[in-house]
Amino acid sequence: MEGTVEGHRDGHGFVLRDDGEASLYLAPQEMRAVLHRDRVRARIIRMDRKGRPEGRVVDILERRKAPIIGRLLHEGGHWLVAPEDRRFGQDILIPKNATANAQAGQVVAVELTEPASLHAQPVGRVAEVLGEIDDSGMEIEIAVRKYEVPHRFSPETLAQAAALPEKLRPVDRKNRIDLTDVPLVTIDGEDARDFDDAVYCEPFKRGRGKSAFTGWRLLVAIADVSHYVKPGEPLDADAYERATSVYFPRRVIPMLPEKLSNGLCSLNPLVERLSMVCDMIVGDDGAVDAYQFYPAVICSHARFTYTEVAAAITNTRGPEAQKNAALLPHLLHLHEAYRALLKQRALRGAMDFETTETQIVCDADGRIEKIVPRTRNDAHKLIEEAMLAANVCAADFIAQAEHPSLYRVHEGPTPEKRLTLQTYLRALGLGLHLSDTPTPQEMAAIAAATKDRPDAMQIHTMLLRAMQQAIYTPSNAGHFGLAYPAYTHFTSPIRRYPDLLVHRVIKALLGGKPKRYHLTLVDNLPPPPPLRKGGRIAPKPPKAATRELELWEQAGAHCSANERRADEASRDVEAWLKCRYMRDRLGEEFSGTVSAVAGFGLFVTLDALYVDGLVHITELGGEYYRFDEVRQELRGERTGVRYGVGTRVRVQVSRVDLDGRKIDFRMVREGEGDRLLAAGRPDRAHVQASAVDQLAAVQSADRVAKAARSRARQSTSGSKPKAAGKSAGKPAGKSGGRKRG
User: Which pLDDT belongs to residue 414?
Assistant: First the structure.
């Protein structure tokens, strides 16, 4: 079978099969001849004890072409580059005449000149010098190259963007409804720069007398990106390649050039803009009784922040309300429509987990100054509900017309995840029913019934883990989490390519064009890497009956894969910043909460800093802990002490690994320590400290002995480069580091 190699930081790897079957395990020896992201042909040579296939590489079909990012090192007279992405597993030899005058310790991009083999490590040349690891913004430069995020627009794209007009022309207004007198407004975060949606709401009454139908007329106007970005043009090619904007602290890599994303397509206040409008009638029960789509010209009457709107609708006599008195009635109507939409949300059984989102605040040098929680107020929620309603109308409009398009699909729990959740709930003795074909209503009922329990956080975490990831696909299977039979993305075409495709489809339907809508651009692009779900490759949708549907499937897989890539790159940068932030706090103690449990230890989130780290199982004290997979907890065999999700602990920052993006904690005091002392038991803090001291002494001795053996080998064998892997002699200073639905 054929597939793509995915390396693992521990030296082994996997072949992600093109046919969607279970991935093949590759032993470390097999990984010596290949690199992460190579395309290979492999065969199964055996099955392990659990029935999982182990493979052998038969042929290398395609070597990765993208540069590899890493630190340039000079060891034993030889130049090496240690890849930033540990999944590559091997250092790259650099001839001394191929260093591009880079200095030791600098971050560089390397192009391979000789591939890896069973008997030799790869050889390359420095293609780009990025700078010093401590340079401001270096973590972002590393991430965009490490995850191969396109970050430079082509000259053709920049030229096309520059040729676009600065303002609307008469030809742009043709066949559009003029809504410039309607007081639409944008409501976004304080740091938002592009505004792709504006909203307006007013009471609606149809009929006469007491039986007259009452409700609200809700308008959601979305930037008409499709008017400027046409299929097959350079702008479209670059937008498709990126598929999404990527958000980092202090920096955004946009899907579209700034002239479009922050200019022509952004619904900036008091300027006329082109938009696609979803015009809805929302009943007093929250149901959308009617809707229509049409192209329009709008003028946003104000740019509001969530904080301003929340203050105005909460206190209608306060300063924010008085400052915006002319628009306040429309904001209050929006809030009333939102409360009606909430009724339908409850009736559908849509899941709503209140989680703590955080925002990183950076200083002038790009380092973390503080991490603060994001508070979701009613302004956030009313915009979210308005966007959800517009997205559902778009999905319904396209489904009714039976036109190919991309849906945002979120399927229910897999049989394995469902069984794990059922077993977990039974172990807790909750008496809550979860059928063999779970429904959103069942999951929502469990969340609601347990929200006041002390272990609510643990239960809700398990419910979330039972969910699958949402993907883009032309095969509509509904949205499980939101409890919609059909759902798509329509509301963010500035930053998401699937939304742009949906706009094009709606326009085609409004214009009475034939149902066939070709994605000619997709024909010329390579297939995206397969997605993975819980260790397995996501199954492909059913085979398309036509070439057009095959192209839609390919576009959906491409957009889904690039969405994952953007998330991984953002998380990598945040992890690097947090590691750098915590490196200055080594030895400090903090209170925290266990956020996840594994067989090797506990993941703890610090209360004050909102940073996660690992307490390894060896740091839990002088006894044996057994991992209870059903209850998701560690239990001490002698004392019976349990650690589960939600357990309160106190920890000390013991180690920070910038290269691995890891933070290690040491347990200082358990939540029930005082109670154990009162019961006459020994103070476990002292037991832990003693165990840690002994472990540290052993590890220190091991390191000294290992270093001595290494020096002895070097003195007897000369300055020979290491065959593979990270060198033990690297400098100690080496370091590596919500958007609307």
Answer: 87
DSSP-derived pairing of the beta strands 357-362 and 368-374: antiparallel
- Max CA-CA distance within the chain? 101
CA separation for the pair 149, 245 (Å, rounded):
10
> 446 near 432, Cβ under 8 Å?
yes
Q: Please state, in angstroms and rounded to a whole number, the distance separating the CA atoms of residues 289 and 275.
A: 23
Q: Which contacts (CB < 8 Å, 24+ apart) does range 477-480 have?
A: 477/407, 477/409, 477/411, 478/409, 478/410, 478/411, 479/408, 479/409, 479/410, 480/410, 480/411, 480/412, 480/440
CB 330 within 8 Å of CB 183: yes
Of 181-185, 283-287, 497-501, minimum mean pLDDT range: 283-287
For the chain, give the number of residues: 741
3-class SS at 290? strand
Give pLDDT tens digits for 243-280.
Answer: 999 999 889 999 999 999 999 999 999 999 999 999 99
Q: Which amino acid is at 727?
A: S
CA triplet 287, 289, 291: central angle to 5 degrees? 115
Q: Are 368 and 578 in contact (CB under 8 A)?
A: yes
Helix (H) or strand (E) holding 713: helix 684-717
pTM of the model: 0.82
Residue 431: its pLDDT value, please? 73
Contacts 24+ apart (CB under 8 A), 344-347: 344/285, 344/286, 344/287, 345/286, 345/385, 347/286
> Is it the case that residue 506 has pLDDT exceeding 70?
yes
What domains appear along the chain, each with residue ranges and CATH number? 2-62 (2.40.50.140), 68-133 (2.40.50.700), 155-404 (no CATH), 585-712 (2.40.50.140)
Express each pLDDT in 71-84 by its tens digit. 999 988 899 999 98
Q: What is the pLDDT of residues 444-486, one digit of tens each?
A: 888 888 888 877 777 888 888 888 889 999 999 999 999 999 9
Cα 602 to Cα 593: distance, rounded to the nearest angstrom: 10
Contact between residue 554 and residue 531 where contact means Cβ atoms under 8 Å apart: no
If you write DSSP's letter for every residue of 569-634 in order, what string do you get? HHHHHHHHHHHHHHHTTTT-EEEEEEEEEETTEEEEEETTT--EEEEEGGGS-SS-EEEETTTTEE
Rg of the chain over Cα atoms, rounded to whole angstroms, equals 28
Q: How many CB atoms lie within 10 A of CB 735?
A: 21
Neighbours of 429 (CB within 10 A): 7
Q: What is the DSSP letter of 262?
A: I
Cα 271 to Cα 263: distance, rounded to the nearest angstrom: 10
How far is Cα 643 from Cα 300, in angstroms, rounded to an integer? Answer: 53
Q: Is the separation of the CB atoms in 541 and 475 below 8 Å? A: yes
d(CA 502, CA 519): 12
Rounded mean pLDDT of the chain? 84
Q: Would the pLDDT of 701 be above 80?
A: no
Residue in the structure block whose two tokens are 């015009």: 279
Per DSSP, 726 falls in state: -
Q: Is 73 helix (H, G, I), strand (E, B) or coil?
A: strand
d(C-alpha 292, C-alpha 294), whole Å: 7
Cα–Cα distance, 687 to 669 (Å, whole number): 11
**Encoded tokens for 507:** 């326009």
Structure tokens at 497: 């390519």
662, HSE (Cβ side, Cα atoms, 13 Å) = 13
Contacts of 24 (CB under 8 A, 6+ apart): 1, 3, 14, 15, 17, 42, 44, 53, 54, 55
Give per-residue pLDDT as tens, 638-679: 888 999 888 899 999 999 998 889 999 999 854 433 433 333
> Which structure tokens are listed for 36?
């992460």
Distance separating alpha carbons of residues 741 and 636, to the nearest angstrom: 42
- CA angle (727 as vertex; 724, 732 as ends), nearest 5: 160
Q: CA 708, CA 689: separation in Å to the nearest integer? A: 28
